[in-house]
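Shipment paperwork, digital attachment
Item: protein structure file
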Amino acid sequence: MLRHSLKKLTLAAAASLLAMSASAAKPQDPINLDQLLQQLQQGQFSQSEENKAREARFRQQEAQQEQILQEAIAQRNALEQQASDLETQFEGNETRLAELENNLEQSMGSLKELFGVLQQVTSDAAGKFQNSVISAQFPGRAEQLSALAEKVGNSSKLPSIEEIETVWFALQKEMTESGKIAEFTAEVTEADGEKEQQSVVRVGSFNLVADGNYLEYNSTTGNIAELVRQPAGRYLDSAEAIQEVDSGVVNFGLDPTGGSILGLLVQAPSLKERVQQGGTVGYIILALGVVGLLFALERFVSLMLIGNKVKRQLKKPQPSNDNPLGRVMLIKDKYPQADTETLELKLSEGILREVPKITRNLTFIKIISVVAPLMGLLGTVTGMINTFQAITLFGTGDPKLMAGGISQALVTTVLGLVVAIPMTLLFAMLHTRSKNMIHILQEQASGIIAERSERGA
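Attachment content:
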């Protein structure tokens, strides 16, 4: 039984030893216990040899690690020394740099202020040249000065004499060209969008004209374009005149602001647009004015012709039937035997027949002179109603919403006065002429009655 237990224990130990040395070459299976014991002894010996080899490797590696550590420490010490040297050098450089900067400040003195002024003047000149119409003839000036101003402001290097002279020459050229009227060829964008090479006349630094029209210079794109809307005709006449003459003095519509006043001038509404602002009431007022003017013209011509005939009749003893005075005088011959009273009544009747022909249409002219301002007042009230409606709907934040109603109110008032004033004057003139003519008829009729009365007596 004991032998059997030892046998089991021996087999278990052998199995453990075989498991630990699994990486070694697999031995042959034992045939008996002696071979098993021999294999166990060989396994312990192999394991002991392997441990010794591992321990030797560990010792060798420990020596190598120690050497690497010493090399790293030596390198660290060298770098620390180098860092200390560089820090010392950096501090020395900073001290030296401060001394040099101080020396530079002292050396520059007033030149530093001069270069600051140079930079400011250059920047201001670049902005002025950018918007100047002279740049239409000499492009690229603003970009050159802007680059110089940026160089002076951002660089520690002092500008050269040539660069300073560049600014002086540019300013001098601007002043010189602003007093000239020059002509040059450039590409012009017409009002319809077409581009064409045209001869452009530059009037100082104020205006550009070509082909009898005013031009505008776009400082952003550098293009020259014809104004879509031109100013009044008298300004266009001056633009044509300055292009046609070679010397002498020419009246020209000059814009001293370089285009601002011209831009406002072309935005002003024309006479047609003013009339359109009056709306329906404005058109009615103008229609009344035209009708009244036609009536007045007809009365003026008629009274002038009748007056000439009456003047000729006054110089002739023989009455004629082609004028009012002649027809009144014929009544005397028609009733030669009538007494004074009857003749007076007949003459009064003849004069009354002539009065409607002489005063015809004068009443219509008077009515128009009265109705026109009333129509203007109607347009004023209508325009104010529209204005208050716009205020109710949109408030008073945007004045343009109220401009339409206010324009209608003012324009209709003006139109009513424009029609009423001349109609009143024309009525007064025509009425005076007709009264004078009727007075001549009455005077001649009184003379005929007096003559008949003397003859009857």
